Structures are given as structure tokens and as C-alpha cells.
Amino acid sequence: MVLAACSGTKKNSPVIGAGKTVDPYHYSSTKAVTYSKAAVASAHPLASQVGVAIMQKGGNAFDAMIATQLALAVVYPGAGNIGGGGFLMARQTNGHLIALDYREMAPGKASRDMYLDKNGNPVSGLSESGHLSAGVPGTVAGLFATLSYAKLSFKELIQPAINLAEFGFVITAHEASGLNNARAAFIQYSANPGAFVKNAPWKAGDTLIQPDLAATLKRIRDNGAKGFYEGQTATMIVQEMQYGKGMISYDDLRNYKAIERPPVEFSYRGYNVISFPPPSSGGLLLAQMLKIIEKFPVTNYGFQTPRSVQLMVEAERRAYADRAQHMGDPDFWKVPQQTLLSEAYLAERMKDYDSAKASSSSNIQAGQIHESPQTTHISIVDEAGNMVAVTTTLNDSYGSKTVVGGAGFILNDEMDDFSIKPGVPNMYGAVGGEANAIAAGKRMLSSMTPTLVIKDNKPFMVVGTPGGTTIPTSVFQSIVNVIDFNMNAADAVNKPKFHHQWLPDNVMVENNFAAATKTALEKMGYTIVPIGGIGRTELIKILPDGSRETAADSRGDDSVAGY
Ligand code: GLY
């Protein structure tokens, strides 16, 4: 399926990567294709095409991930980034798993009560926008850590992004609307918002040229990670911090490291699921929810019937209660992972489950442990079978709305993913406590859930999505749609989603969610809250003949590419 094409005035026509198919002035979203060899699904057609061009040039899935993520940093400024962070979950053809944490980190001067006034009350918006909301960015460190698994040179991988920034690309209607909505905030929170702000409103087909960002990308090309964390780019970040009373220092930048973590691995109905561990809550929540429902004949209950949705909501409620209390950066907080995933513990959590009525979140607290939270996702499978799932984030759309003056990129507002005060909800309505309190050098709890599924020791699925706290429930439901309801990739991604996160105690449902199920749930005592859209999932399913059934979410500009 090909959606309406996006085209504009051709300013220049540099070759992007090796692919003759990458034309930044004429492109369209392709939503679902089965490719025979290799595939990329990402939030933007140009980024997916760049990833594929890199693989056609001899790169593997890791090369494609680096080039796609860098391209997203240019063509999708609302969430693609070099000023944010992310997680990579990958499996090489020999079965080796890689969980790479390049999550943002609290600056060295950060402290537990930094967003509270003298009376101990949160200062509205301080953790959500502007300089003080930014954590130390991890993306560039993550890209260089990924390079050790890649085949091509970094110079080759970054050049398409440089060309897109330097010569421009035409923007979609979504992007034009996003930039227009963020205009006032860019001006309020930046010394120099650069290319993102112009006098007339943006419209679909305008060309966005980002010379400052192109120069930053060239410094990274020429100096490696030091081109970001040291030298001129670091000076620009620190000067921007001084302009807006932010906290990120030269030391914070120089000392930032990406970390490899042991992945969360578990079985679900004969499939092996591999997902991201803390400081993401995503892998643990996914494991808890799937293991809870594995005990029930969900296929027999039927897709989005009151019975299956009610069960899944109650699994979501209990898992998110645990998130609020027990999950945080494992380098600062002992996350009781083994217990949280044990059969006995999960059975105990469902002891009070009643299939005829809603539980109440005021009666369900986190379990007792007796053992010493705008984002974007890329799914890639290459010709050899390397699988890469990467979720990366600025947090809110356009992050902190602080553009680093002269450097042309937007900083994250990831500090809001910490619990700024126990029990006070963040922008996603999620609450937390001590486990996710702010501390210098600590990584804030995430919900990002880049996930791989293996069947009989062979690649079966690569999946992930943006969406804040709705990420784990969207990945959960996409997997259930494929495994329990035998859906193809496009249906698994695009069928309506629902979400419960313990607090607030309601079930969010997409507008096209089945009316009869909604009514039945309300009769059982659930409060239903309609919501415009949940997630933008990118899913690749590997079919028995080895072909790659690839779907990009219809909720945005997302697009697949492959060969
Ligand atoms: N900023 C969204 C997340 O990391 O969960």
C-alpha cells in the first residue's frame, strides 16, 4: 500500500548513500510489503530508504541502524535525534544477543528535589521543557558502540544524514504541523532556534535545510564521538546551558558511556522473547504481562472480546503497579528482576483476579518483594538474518524544545521520566518512588521496549514503538496479535490498541476500538477513556520461507523499505 506522495521544489539532488531510490524531494510512505531479503521499518520514508541503500551497499543491519538513526535525526526532528538517547536490542546470526543502553543520564549537578519549590511542590513544567529538563545525551555514544558490529565506515554511514541536512528535504504535512505547533516553545526555550523557526508557517512540501546540524554531523564524521562530546559541539551545548540555567557540563559530556546490559529473555507459548532490561521497564513489563496471560486460552477468548481485553488489562494493571515501585536504573537501585518474573510471584499477583469484574488500583499495590517511564522505533532484518530493534527518544515531541544554538539539534526533556516527587505523575501520568528518584549520573526509568522474538532458534519478529508508558502495552498487544490471533504484520500493528497503567485507574482505548467491547467493559466496572492514537509500531515478521513481512504503522509518516 502506498500513501499519498510528498513532493516539493528540487533544490539540489545529492545522491544519498548508494541508493538511486532515495530522493529527498519526492517520496511517499509505503506501509506494508513482504521483502525477500532485507527490510527496514522506521518513522520516515527517507530514513528507511537510507537504511536499505546502506545494506545494498554491503552493510549489515547494524550499519543500516546507524545510517537510519542518523537520517531520522535530520528528517524527523520531533523524535529522531542526536540530543536524546535510546536502547538497541539486537541478535547476530550466531545467536549472540546485544542489549545496548545509551539512555540519557542525569547531569552531575542534578539532585533529588531539583524540580520542587521551597514548599516541596513540583514547579510546573520545569522537568518537561527548557534547558533544565535535559539529560546528558547518549545517542552518539550508542551509535559508536554499535559501530563495532557494523561493516562499513562511520563516514559512509553518516554521509546520507549530512546530505539531507545540508541540501534539505521536503517535509510532510505531519512535520509541518509539528514544527508550527512547537514554534513558540522553540523561541521561548532556545537562544537560537535556527532552522526550525521561520516567519511564515511551515506547510507540506516546504524544504527544510539544516546547515548548523550538517556542520555538527561533519564534526562527528571527522572526530568520532569526540566531535559531539568534546570540542566545538560540547562548547555549544554548555553555552546553551548557561543561557538557560541548565546543568549539563563539559565533564558530564566527556564522561558519558553507552553500557551493554544483560537482556530480558523468556518464553511465551513456545517462542523466545528477548527485550530490554532496566533502566527500561519495558522488557520486565512485557515479560510479566505475557507470562500472566500465558496461563489462559486467549485464542479461544477471541480478539478484543470483553474476555480477552479484560484479562490483558488486569495483567497490565498489575505489571505497572510493580513498575512504579520496583523499577529504576540498576546501577542505583536493586531491581528485583528474578522475583518479578518468577511463576510463583506472577501467580500470586493474579490471585484476586475476577474475570467478571474490574479490579481497583487502590486495592492493587506493587507486589511484596523478598529479594536481597516522543520517541521513535526502527526495526531491521538484514539478508544474513541479523535482527536489530532500536527505540530512541527525545521524550516529548521535539524534546525540551531547546535547540543547541549553532549546533542545530534539539535536546531531550528526559529528566521528566524520573519520579520528581513520589506519587506525582509525570507527563505520561506515571507515578514512581525511590527506585526512580533523581540522582547525579543516574539513568531515568524508561518504557522503551525494543523486542525480538525467536522461534526454533530462528528469527521470527522484530518489534517496537514510541508512546511513553503505552510502549510496553503496544508491544505486548502486537505480539499477542501475531502469536495468539495469527495476524499478519500490518494487522498486528494497525488494529486498535488499549492501555492500562495502574494509575490513573482507567482503560485508554483508541477511537476505533470495538464499541461492544467498550460497553461490556464499562458494565464490569472499568472507566474507559478514548484516545486519538496509541503508538507507531514498526514490525517485521519473518515468514517460514524466510521472507520479511514488514509493516510500518499507519498512524504516522512511518514507512517500510527493503529488497
Ligand atoms: N521517554 C519515553 C521513555 O523512555 O519511556
UniProtKB/TrEMBL annotation:
Key words of the record: Acyltransferase, Glutathione biosynthesis, Hydrolase, Transferase, Zymogen
Tell me the GO molecular function terms.
Answer: glutathione hydrolase activity; leukotriene C4 gamma-glutamyl transferase activity
PTM remark = Cleaved by autocatalysis into a large and a small subunit.
Q: Which Gene3D superfamilies match?
A: 1.10.246.130, 3.60.20.40
Enzymatic reactions: glutathione + H2O = L-cysteinylglycine + L-glutamate; an S-substituted glutathione + H2O = an S-substituted L-cysteinylglycine + L-glutamate; an N-terminal (5-L-glutamyl)-[peptide] + an alpha-amino acid = 5-L-glutamyl amino acid + an N-terminal L-alpha-aminoacyl-[peptide]
Coiled-coil ranges (or none): none
A Pfam family for this UniProt protein?
G_glu_transpept
Active site at: T375 (nucleophile)
Source domain of life is: Bacteria
Which residues does L-glutamate bind? Answer: R103, T393, L394, N395, D417, S446, S447, G468
What InterPro entries does its record include?
Answer: GGT_bact, GGT_CS, GGT_lsub, GGT_peptidase, GGT_ssub_C, Ntn_hydrolases_N
Q: Does the keyword Transferase apply?
A: yes
Note the SUPFAM superfamilies from the entry. N-terminal nucleophile aminohydrolases (Ntn hydrolases)
Q: Which PROSITE patterns match?
A: G_GLU_TRANSPEPTIDASE (PS00462)
Identify the stretch annotated as signal peptide in this record: none
What pathway does this protein act in? Answer: Sulfur metabolism; glutathione metabolism
The EC number on file is: 2.3.2.2, 3.4.19.13
Q: Which GO terms describe its biological process?
A: glutathione biosynthetic process; glutathione catabolic process
Q: Which family does it belong to?
A: Belongs to the gamma-glutamyltransferase family.
Spell out the PANTHER family in the cross-references: GLUTATHIONE HYDROLASE, GLUTATHIONE HYDROLASE PROENZYME
Binding partners and assembly: This enzyme consists of two polypeptide chains, which are synthesized in precursor form from a single polypeptide.
| Protein's UniProt name | Glutathione hydrolase proenzyme
Species name = Panacibacter microcysteis
Provide the taxonomic classification.
Bacteria, Pseudomonadati, Bacteroidota, Chitinophagia, Chitinophagales
Underlying gene: ggt
